[in-house]
Specification:
The protein folds into two domains: about 190 residues, Periplasmic binding protein-like II (D-Maltodextrin-Binding Protein, domain 2), CATH 3.40.190; about 90 residues, D-Maltodextrin-Binding Protein, domain 2. It is globular and about 55 Å long. It is of the alpha/beta class. The chain has 14 helices and ten strands. It has a five-stranded mixed beta sheet, with helices on both faces. α6 links the parallel β6 and β7.
């Protein structure tokens, strides 16, 4: 018993002495991953001194990482590729969440639009430069035999999409959680489809190439912490939903707990998805090729150098 107490004291002391890591997370539900970990003190268990920093979206996290005001954080796959293509010294160590089930093309409840094909010539609200927008233009539209020239993309922030839709400023929007479930709860929208049949919507865990090493933070311990958080979402979704629901209500979202649980389940977080699988690595490379073809980047970067192979996929 004495040895256990000494060991716990050592771990706590090590955690307190660890250098601070500023962890950026988006206000979208992908951020629930970081919120749950923080609430359950999982970081300290793995000797990590984490300070959470909320950002409006994953692209803002990306910009803060590039600018040096954050050490690690959640970034959309397309945002990550753009940064690496521009020469930013960034690496990804894993996947926070694939938000395909938490992202949907929606129209007004009484809209005459019944399918994606009906969107030809219509206005679609999408937050340009986000991973959701990339999945829309490189996955959903082409697989539905539509091009970006056959629709009109209107740049709208996620939080403003439902109001823009209901005021007839656009014909459809790429709604994300929690706005998606909140609008569903009110009965004001109709979901045409989520993104899963067409393309993943991956949010990666990114950091600077030497950031964790400089901060003396063990990458393996960091991955162990992430895997434990994912286990909570996979095995105890009600617990994760309770924590995230409290956070949403503190921000003014009046969302019933059953709906919060639906949001958590739609994130589909599990340990086997956190590590960069061969399938995700292939998708990352293929998406870079598609982004080059569509003019989103000027060159296809060498993504092998942007993947931390010391822990990815192990």
């Amino acid at each position: 018993m004495k040895k256990i107490v000494i060991l716990l004291s050592f771990l706590i002391a090590s955690s307190l002495n660890a250098q601070e890591l500023k962890f950026g997370y988006p206000s979208t539900p992908a951020g629930a991953f970081a919120i749950v970990a923080n609430k359950l003190d999982i970081w300290k268990k793995y000797q990590l001194n984490i300070t959470l920093v909320e950002q409006a979206a994953a692209i803002n996290v990306r910009d803060a990482l590039v600018g040096g005001s954050l050490d690690i954080g959640f970034v959309g796959l397309s945002n990550f590729v753009v940064a690496v293509a521009a020469g930013a010294p960034m690496v990804t160590i894993g996947v926070a969440v694939d938000q395909c089930a938490a992202t949907a093309l929606v129209v007004k409840k009484n809209s005459s639009i019944k399918s994606i094909a009906d969107l030809k010539g219509k206005k679609i609200g999408s937050e340009v430069a986000t991973v959701t927008h990339g999945s829309l233009t490189n996955g959903v539209l082409p697989k539905s035999k539509l091009t970006t020239k056959e629709v009109q993309i209107i740049n709208i922030r996620f939080r403003d999409m439902i109001s823009a839709l209901l005021s007839d400023s656009v014909d459809a929007v790429t709604a994300v959680e929690p706005f998606l479930s909140q609008a569903e709860q009110s009965g004001s929208i109709k979901v045409l489809t989520d993104f899963c049949p067409f393309a993943p919507v991956p949010v990666l865990i990114a950091t600077g190439k030497e950031t964790l090493e400089k901060k003396a933070a063990s990458e393996k311990l960091f991955m162990s912490a992430l895997l434990e958080v994912a286990q909570v979402f996979a095995k105890q979704p009600e617990k994760a939903a309770q924590i995230y629901g409290e956070e949403l209500r503190a921000k003014g979202f009046d969302i019933p707990q059953p709906v919060v649980l639906q949001i958590i389940k739609r994130l589909n977080i599990s340990p086997d998805r956190v590590r960069l699988s061969p399938i995700m690595l292939t998708y990352l490379q293929d998406e870079a090729q598609r982004m080059k073809a569509s003019g989103q980047i000027d060159n296809v970067p060498d993504l092998k150098g942007a993947i931390d192979v010391s822990i990815a996929g192990k």
